[in-house]
Amino acid sequence: MVFEVIGTPSPEREHRVQQLAELGFTWANLEDEAYWIDQVVLMEQQTYAKLIVAAESLWRVFDKAVRYVKGNRSLYEQLSIPEVLWDGLDRLELNDIGAISRYARFDFTVNQQGEIKLLELNADTPTGYVEAAIATPWLCEQIGLVSPNAEMKNLIRAAWDIEAPDFAACIAYGRHAEDTGTIDALVAHSGRTMTCVDCLDLWIDEGVVKVGDHQIISNMFALYPKEWMGIDDGGEALSYAIEEQFIQLFNPLHAVILQSKGLQALIWELHKKNSAMFTLDEHKAIAAYMLPTFFSPELSGDYVSKSMFGREGGSVELYDATGVLEVKDEAGFDTSVFFKRVYQQRADLPEIGFAHGNRHLLTGLFVLGGTPCGLLGRAGGKITGNASQFVPIGVKAP
């Protein structure tokens, strides 16, 4: 058994919720609902080591795929990247190998037999940082465990030293608890003196990004999905500012290529053609850890359909062995009204028993500055959506 649930929910939940809030995790309870599960999932050391290797290998594979895509507008279109971003993607230089995104998260399904399969990569604006970097180490410490997640803050500091943003932004900063808390934690761990702003307070004057009457922003970390520049009012102006280098955005613009789930279909296509772009070991990693993914519905059954830029499960549809729709996410926003879909072989999440019932466990693993570090557990239904809960994942001592 790879996973073991330990501990029982404390009768003093509200006290523990307050302690977590003092650490910066202020959404352990969301209104009347418990978002945080007061237990710990333990992962076998051997499986954790294998997960790190999988992430390292796949990070190299995805990096190569982005370099293959850059400059090819037919591939931009195939990956559903908004046209407003194309000039910037062509004109701006890619970051060094392994650094196209410095703040990313792989989402895996890891079953009780130790089989690891990648579901998707959020390489642009992953949340869950506070849960993984702050709450998980503290909760593990309460039961005498040392969490590998404790290293996350050092990796963030190193990454932000390179990008050196002076501003950090999200939508509804100061009002949206999760995004605000994520920004605040990242800024604190970066060790930098920064100004945090609401994206909706930004304005652009002939390509110059400003906040307030006169303050110019030239380097900014933004928890704002880049694909929305093709949809939002002001998106074209912001893309122009990035393209003309009035502002440097972190994660960089090319993270949007990594973010597209269509990149997984492209990688699979290149793998099946035995592309010389990938080494033998990288082909082995693709075969071992990735799921067959296609641009069109080629699978007859046991597959998943989802938007290339879907988030929080909003566009996910699961099909059974006969090709009949079994379940779809009804709560999240279906972004496939704006972006194309991909079709991926189905790999279900393992069902784990908790004190309040069985839940399906998603295993997230952050990649910070190119280094895999930071387990994030989400427990919910067959589709991990907004109703899913956070559960800390620790690693058994060797």
Automatic annotation (TrEMBL):
Residues 18-393 form the Glutathionylspermidine synthase pre-ATP-grasp-like domain. The keyword Metal-binding applies. Keywords: ATP-binding, Ligase, Magnesium, Metal-binding, Nucleotide-binding. This is Glutathionylspermidine synthase. It comes from Paenibacillus aceris.
